[in-house]
Amino acid sequence: MIYHPYGTTGLQLSAIGFGGMRFLDQKDVEGCAALVKKAHDLGITYFDTAIGYGDSEAIFGAAFREMKKQRRERPFYVSTKTNKATAGEIRRELETSLKRMGLDYVDFYHVWCVMDKDSYLKRKLKGALQAFEQLQREGLIRHICVSSHQTGVEIEWMLQDYPFAGILLGYSVMNYAYRDQGISAAARLGRGVVIMNPLGGGIIPQHPQRFDFVRTREEETVVQGALRFLLNDARITTALVGFSSEAQLEEAIAAAEGFAGLNAEAVEGIRSHLSTSFDELCTGCGYCDHCPVGVPVPKMMDSYNQFMLSGRPESIAERLGWHWGIGRKSPVYDLCTECGQCEEACTQKLPIRARLREIREHVQKGRK
User: Which pLDDT tens digit goes with each residue over 36-68?
Assistant: First the structure.
C-alpha cells in the first residue's frame, strides 16, 4: 500500500480508502465487518462513513472492536459526518456516531454535503464551526473537515475562509476539470484531499469498453487505470472506494500495489481522450457556469452525463437530488429562457438548451 500525508496534520493515510456506503447487505453485519477487517489487513487505514449511511457506522463498529486491539501497532483513522447546523444537533449526532462505532473520538469529522456558498454560510451563521471547535477542544474529534459538492472556485473560497484540515470531494477522470481549481487550492493551503466517487459513482466499471482509454498498461483493468490516474496526482491524499466484495477490494489494492508513476504524456492522453472520444459528454470545464437567470448548467450537464452512460432517464433526477441537492420540485428546471449564452461559452459546442429541455421533461414525468 502507498501512504500519503494528510495536509499538515502529520498523519499518513493509505492512498486507497474504504467508503462505507456500498455494503452489499447491511443486515449481514458480521460479513460486512469481515470485509472492513480484510481491508485493514491489506493496508487500508482510512475508513469513511456517515450517520446517514444506514447501518454503516454499526458495521464499522463491529470491525473496529477487533481492529482496536492492535491499533497502536497498526493504526487506522475514522471519518464520519454531520449535515446539522446547530451545536445541540451536531453534538447529538456525534455522540450517536461514537456510540455506534464504539469509539472515544473521531479522527476526521466533516461539515457534510456543502452544496454551495449559501449553504456553507448558513451553517456558519448558525454556529456549526464553533460547535465543531468545542467538540475538538473536548477531544471528541481530532480534525475539522468539510465535504463539498461545490465548484472549484467555490471550494477555493471556502478553504480560504476557514482552516479546515482537509476536504472530501467528488473527482474522477469524468469531471476533473470542474473541481481542479479547488484541489489545487487545497494543496497550496496545506489541506488534506480525499476523493469520493473516484470511479464516477460506479459508471466507469459499468462501462469498461467506453473507459478503456484510462488503461496505460495492458494488464491493468479499467478500475485500476481510473484509480491510478488519481494516485498519480500528488495533490490527492486518498481515493475513497465504496467496496461491496473482496474481489473489488483486491482489485483496488492491486492498483496501489502495482502503481508506477504516469508520465505527463500519459496523463495528458487520458485527459484529451475524454474530450475527443467523449465529445457528447460534458467534461465539466465550467465555462457555461454564468447563466444570467441562475440555471446551474454544469450540474445539469453532469446529471445528463449519467443519463447518457446509464440509459436510465431516472438517473437524471437521482444525480441532481443525491449529488447536487436539487430536488424534483426545484424552480431551476423552469428558469431557462434559451438565450444561448451557455452554448456560446461551451468549448465542446454541446446542445445544452435541448438537453435542459429534456432534463425538465424527465424530471416532470417523475413528479406525477
Answer: 999 999 999 999 999 989 999 999 999 999 999
Query: Which residues partner with 239 through β-bridges?
Result: 16, 195
Question: Residue 243's domain spans which residues?
Answer: 3-268
- Are 56 and 127 in the same domain? yes
In terms of DSSP H, where are the helices of the chain? 29-41, 56-67, 87-101, 117-125, 128-137, 152-161, 176-188, 203-206, 222-231, 246-257, 264-277, 297-310, 314-318, 341-345, 352-367
Strand, helix or coil for residue 56 = helix
pLDDT band at 285 (very low <50, low <70, confident <90, very high): low
**Do 354 and 226 belong together in one domain?**
no
Grid look-up 484531499 returns 193
Q: Which of 293, 297, 285 is nearest to 353 (CA)?
A: 297
Q: What is the DSSP string of 60-100?
A: HHHHHHHHGGGTTTS--EEEEEE---SHHHHHHHHHHHHHH
Q: Residue 273 falls within a domain, yes or no?
A: no
DSSP class of residue 352? H
Please state, for a pLDDT cut of 90, what percent of the chain lies above it: 54
Residue 200 within a domain? yes
**Do both 239 and 319 map to the same domain?**
no
Task: Yes or no: say if 89 and 65 are a contact pair by the CB < 8 Å rule.
Answer: no
pTM: 0.79
The answer to whether the CB of 172 falls within 8 A of the CB of 226 is yes
Hey, what's the cell of 126? 448558525
Report the amino acid identity of residue 210.
R
CA distance 86 to 82: 11
- For 297-327, the pLDDT digits (tens) are 988 998 898 888 778 889 899 889 888 889 9
Burial class (CB in 10 A: 0-12, 13-18, 19+), 26: middle
Task: Name the residue among 9, 173, 169, 150 with its Cα closest to residue 77.
Answer: 9
